[in-house]
Amino acid sequence: MSTLLDLSASFKAYDVRGIVGETITEDSVRAVGAAFVDSLGLAGETVLVGGDMRPSSPAFARAFADGATRRGADVLFLDLISTDELYYASGTLDAAGVTFTASHNPAQYNGMKLTRPGAVPVSSDTGLDDVQARAEAYLEAGSIPAAAVRGRTGVRDILEEYSRFLRGQVDLSSSRPLKIVVDAGNGMAGLTTPAVLGDRLLEALPLDIVPLYFELDGTFPNHPANPLEPENLRDLKAAVVEHGADIGIAFDGDADRCFIIDERGEPVSPSAITAMIARREIARAQAAGEAEPAIIHNLITSRAVPELILEDGGRPVRTRVGHSFIKAVMAREGAVFGGEHSAHYYFRTFWNADTGMLAALHVLAALGEQDGPLSELGREYEPYFSSGEVNSKVADVQGSIERARAEFAQDGVVVDDLDGLTFTPGHGRWWFNLRPSNTEPYLRLNAEAEDQDTLEELVERVLAVIRD
């Protein structure tokens, strides 16, 4: 066993993520597999193990399985999977599991997303710290003691049943034919897109798919699989215009997030997509007899989101940023849907978990059920002007926040501290949020206004106050 004892460099708030061979190794992964079984009491139970297309994922999956079976759990290998395939398998099989992925991080990274049975996330608040402590103890001891009965291993391919399940959530039978460009970024959407949206495993949909970078390659030879960065959408934007496509869809490396481009090559904001899907899910819940279905949105989505939810007879529930918070509130409120500015979309029919592919199906259905272009449809859900996330490196984060409070918390401006500070004036023409980064000396500004001039003036004023 390795002598690496301190796993704090790779254990994060929501998952495990580190540099391969440095902060995450086969030995540490083996110890985590054993600790996961012990911490969750999984001896004699089935643990699902899969991974993405990164070169280290297969070896890490085997190492985790070795640790888990030594402690008496049975392991069912899912092999190559997107993260939302793990959630599907965990939900439908009611089993705990892990997938090896570092999502949108560069090629030298890998990590683990862990889930309890029913796709319930394991975070630092719900057991991840205990897994870390137990794994460190195994590493320090230099061995993993064998359970009375070693677990067995098996293999299951869930791609077709996952695809069929998602198809059953959204009816595209009445959609007009659509030409779509999909940028998989050499990530797992290169496997799941042909299965769900194409005809690789199921009957064809009215979709003409133009593929970009569908080859599974965890070295990311074309661009990083991080659509949140505008430069990584450049090829998709150009391809949408070149092919005269109706829509462009970009997925991140593990395909749990999707980003949407309209027919002009312009991005449609995740807030607009949240509102668009919320409208559909509210209507579906109401048709089933549910009064005021709850929709979750984080505090830096556009204010258009809660306005539309109320207009359509839903109940908006505001929460702080972060998927573990969203999933917990989804469960507590019995919400039908949740959306974040980072393009994570959560569905009650998907065990409150996030899935980029199901979100994409909803957007395709919304577009295909009407005759106008996506740019016009998107404008219905995006009436305000947004800054996006503006990061400032400051020497004294808290001091900068307090300067902003002193400058703006006056003349009827309401300030709340749900996540950082959010400033909202009584007249409602603008709002902004300041949130400190959890890991770096950054302040993150998100602002919105009724017109572009007001937005630019607001952002300039805030940055002048918070920057040293």
TrEMBL record:
Q: Where is the Alpha-D-phosphohexomutase alpha/beta/alpha domain?
A: 10-134, 160-265, 273-382
A single MF term (Gene Ontology): intramolecular phosphotransferase activity
Has the keyword Nucleotidyltransferase been applied to this entry?
no
Q: Which residues form the signal peptide?
A: none
Show the InterPro entries listed in the entry.
A-D-PHexomutase_a/b/a-I, A-D-PHexomutase_a/b/a-I/II/III, A-D-PHexomutase_a/b/a-II, A-D-PHexomutase_a/b/a-III, A-D-PHexomutase_C, A-D-PHexomutase_C_sf, Alpha-D-phosphohexomutase_SF
Q: Please indicate which superkingdom the organism of origin belongs to.
A: Bacteria
Protein's UniProt name: Phosphomannomutase/phosphoglucomutase
**What is the organism of origin for this protein?**
Arthrobacter echini
